[in-house]
Amino acid sequence: MSKLSPIPAFPRMLEDESIYILREVAAQFENPALLFSGGKDSITLVRLAQKAFWPGKIPFPLLHVDTGHNFPETIEFRDRLVKETGADLVVRYVQDSIDAGKVKEETGKYASRNVLQTVTLLDAIEEFKFDACIGGARRDEEKARAKERIFSVRDDFGQWDPKKQRPELFDMLNGRINIGENIRVFPISNWTELDVWTYIKEEELEIPSIYFTHQRRVIERDGMIWPHSEFLNTSAEEVPFEETVRFRTVGDMTCTAAVASSANNIDDIIREILSAKISERGARMDDKRSEAAMEQRKKEGYF
User: Fold this and answer.
1) Is 157 helix (H, G, I), strand (E, B) or coil?
2) Residues 154 and 183: beta-carbon distance below 8 Å
3) Three-state SS letters, 54-82
4) Which end of the chain has less Cβ packing within 10 Å, N or C?
5) Pairing mode, if any, of strands 132-134 and 182-185?
6) Cis amide leading into 32 (omega within 30)
7) Torsion of CA 111, 115, 117, 118, to 10 degrees
């Protein structure tokens, strides 16, 4: 695609909808939290929350479930954002769940802590008595996420039943829950990846450096480019090499592949997305474990 191709404008009605949803969360729930990963979607949520409650402070904490295998650039960005916005931050660690014997570290070539986050998240919800958790999932990302309502109920075990979805007619959001239940809220559910990036461009939001092209030590596995790290279980044949890459999505280092790219600014990223033939989660190995991998994780209490 030509670099002269026009960059589409962000549809501002999506921002209005998201702000309405965030205000409904504040009105209907006693103790919500915003799930924060340091990725572009949760960064977008922080900006929306700032706008929704300006000039006041964001009225709920950011909750980060730290796998211990995060990209260091993401953790550095998280801490800087919290300092700049004055938001409260709660961090809970997967390593603590492992040490307590609640989850078991995976082994083998594709070992990852991504699935293990579920237990740590549910424990944090119980610890702080959060009745609503705001997430940055979007319907265009993956078919299980397309089934979610904007207010998505989890039972008292933290589990999701796709067959028990509440109707959301005329934008009426029903936050009534029984004792022990929890609501997951998705304010940008109706956005696309392109919408997120055009919003980041127009709002001039800072994002972690790994979204832009950079030199990185990587390996090739299954036809994809993986970030080389001490957390990745590699074989003798998987020899690290230097490559110019960026990341379309940010997750655990052991399940997030990079893409070869020369995009070093937002406009270049948007043009790449416009011409892309695979979705952003096509670079997430955790979604490829089975045909229904994401849906199964969500049923168990995943984000």
Assistant:
1) coil
2) yes
3) CCCCCCCCEEEEECCCCCHHHHHHHHHHH
4) N
5) parallel
6) no
7) -160
pLDDT digits (tens, 9 = 90+) for 95-104: 999 999 999 9
40 in Cβ contact with 197 (< 8 Å): yes
What is the number of alpha carbons within 13 Å of residue 96 lying toward its C-beta? 11
198-208 as b/e: b if 16+ CB within 10 A: bbbbeeebebb
Give the separation between CA 178 and CA 182, rounded to whole angstroms: 8
Alpha-carbon span 118 to 300, nearest angstrom = 7
Task: Judge whether 219 and 190 are in contact, CB under 8 Å.
Answer: no
Contact indicator for 221, 254 with CB cutoff of 8 Å: no
Confidence of residue 1 (pLDDT cuts 50, 70, 90): very low
- DSSP per-residue letters across 136-152: ---TTT-HHHHT--SEE
- CB 26 within 8 Å of CB 19: no
* Amino acid in the structure at residue 4: L
Q: ∠ CA 70-72-75 to the nearest 5 degrees?
A: 80
**Nearest CA among 236, 207, 196 for reference residue 219:** 236
Instruction: Answer whether 0.85 is exceeded by the pTM.
Output: yes
Both tokens of residue 253?
Answer: 């280092």
Terminus-to-terminus CA distance in the chain, angstroms? 35
Pairwise CA distance, residues 177 & 182, whole Å: 7
